[in-house]
Write a structure and sequence with these properties.
single chain; about 500 residues; alpha+beta; six-stranded mixed sheet; 23 strands; about 15% helix
């Protein structure tokens, strides 16, 4: 007699658990998805048309999930906005939303789809996880009705949230997270009243989850790692690359290193909007990453990661980020300093005039020190040491401290800080440090062509970002990106009277 379908699922799930338990590692996957976008419209489409569009995207995601599972992946992350895109007003996104319950309800949508009303998207995602015996993380929209008894209730009688969901290998909903730090254009969604710190346990470690812009703030990102001690973070994102410090692969890899956790980052893929760059990032550097600004193709990445990186013998030591920089005398360079803009942020720069040297540049409470030696100094290229200590952002203002070795766009010093993607100059060595007023510093090294430098640099216990040997490729930037969360200004949009549409 053939075994029943439920028994087969139970056996597959048990096998997945046993495989994960048998090892201190797991296979992680992320899928960078070229989202099929809806037509622009001022009027809401019908629920059937909305579901048809979402099914087109889920067809693609399902193919990636099946392929990942066949290659042994235990968990896969798909991008923010990956199921319906981002071209919406509050009204036009409504047909795409579902009511997503709290995971405490112990629900498998694949086997009980009507329990909480129509939920075809949750049902399909649940079945993808169940049928492939894999954890699936996806980003969809949640709707929650409210009424006049809630003084913050929007005038249309509902909250709408940018929401991550996770289904386990049985298809059970195990996590739901409402994005706390909405990007400024996300007017179709409401801000949650409080930040949610969402975690779930797996046989291969403790996981947390948050979304895109969240990574730049204390809550919930830092809280998940520092207070709740997650081992790995799932990170659906729709990240627009911003040089020189905030390309997706550059900053997300640096965040994983600075925080000492695995970060499973799945970006949307849209070249016109500079959206590309996904990866499986670890405390030691990228295990796998993808950056493609030339094609419109999606990409599946897999890598074997440490299940509990803090227990790994290669786990990086605790860094005192200001130790070295506060122990030395200032190098020369400050007298030749000039101001330059990185977008709207005014940096203090000093030109690296020679093939080798020692420089110091200061701004505010931050002094940045650099020792360097170039392999070749091109007459057509100018590099600077830069410092920034201040509030970033035009609307949402948050405090950065940055020390950077940076290539200028041209030999005109007025171009220093403008976006640059290519370079010709290699360095025999560099050592960058700063008098940071924070423990939250993220080390970035970006090569020509927006490529990372895995294994080619290290962070010493005394806070120096140091090349291990000569750079294998020309350098765009080496940066220490610090965040002083306690100096952030109050959020101008996260107030009760601004929650309403």
């Amino acid at each position: 007699m053939l075994p029943s379908q439920p028994l087969l699922h139970a056996a597959a799930f048990a096998l997945t658990v046993l495989q994960a338990l048998a090892s201190d590692t797991f296979i992680a996957a992320v899928y960078e998805h070229a989202v099929i976008l809806p037509d622009a419209t001022d009027e809401p489409v019908s629920p059937d048309d909305a579901l048809a569009l979402m099914n087109k995207n889920m067809d693609v995601l399902e193919g990636a999930i099946k392929e990942a599972a066949q290659q042994g992946a235990h968990i896969i992350v798909t991008p923010e906005d990956g199921i319906y895109g981002w071209r919406f007003t509050r009204e036009t996104i409504y047909p795409y939303l579902e009511d997503i319950p709290d995971p405490v309800v112990n629900w498998i949508p694949c086997t009980d789809p009507a329990r909480f009303g129509p939920a075809p998207v949750q049902e399909r995602l649940s079945c993808m996880a169940r049928n492939n015996s894999i954890y699936v993380a996806a980003n969809i929209g949640d709707k929650k009705p409210c009424n006049s008894s809630d003084p913050s209730c929007p005038s249309d009688g509902r909250y709408q949230y940018n929401t991550d969901v996770v289904f386990d290998p049985e298809g059970k909903l195990v996590a739901r997270y409402h994005k706390y730090n909405l990007f400024r254009r996300e007017t179709q969604f409401n801000y949650p009243k409080k930040p949610e710190t969402v975690t779930f346990e797996t046989p291969f470690g403790k996981f947390g989850i948050f979304t895109c812009f969240d990574i730049l703030f204390r809550e919930p990102a830092v809280v998940l790692v520092s207070a709740l001690q997650v081992d790995s973070v799932l990170f659906p994102t729709a990240w627009m690359n911003v040089l020189p410090f905030l390309t997706a692969v550059e900053f997300h890899s640096a965040w994983a290193m600075g925080m000492g956790v695995n970060l499973l980052s799945a970006n949307t893929h849209n070249v016109r909007l500079a959206m590309t760059g996904s990866g499986l990032f670890t405390p030691e550097g990228p295990a796998a990453y993808h950056y493609d600004s030339a094609t419109e193709e999606g990409c599946l990445l897999l890598a074997e990661l440490s299940a509990r990186p803090r227990l790994s013998p290669t786990y990086p030591p605790v860094v005192n980020w200001s130790s070295f920089a506060t122990s030395i005398k200032k190098f020369p360079g400050q007298k030749d300093a000039f101001s330059g803009a990185v977008r709207r942020d005014i940096f203090t720069f000093s030109e690296l005039r020679n093939k080798a040297g020692n420089y110091t540049v200061c701004q505010g409470d931050l002094c940045c020190h650099l020792v360097y030696r170039m392999t070749n100094k091109s007459k057509d290229e100018v590099y600077v040491l830069g410092a920034f200590d201040g509030l970033h952002g035009s609307l949402i203002k948050y405090h950065w401290q940055i020390c950077t070795l940076l290539k200028c766009k041209s030999t005109d010093l007025n171009t220093c800080g403008q976006p640059v993607e290519t370079a010709q100059t290699k360095f025999e060595m560099f050592s960058l440090s700063g008098t940071f007023g924070t423990n939250y510093v993220f080390p970035e090294v970006l090569y020509s062509g927006v490529q990372l430098a895995p294994g080619e640099f290290e962070v010493l216990r005394d806070g120096r970002l140091k090349s291990k040997h000569g750079t294998l490729k020309p350098l765009i930037t080496a940066t220490l990106f610090g965040r002083l969360y306690e100096k952030d200004l109050p959020h101008p949009l996260r107030t009760s009277h601004n929650i309403t549409p």
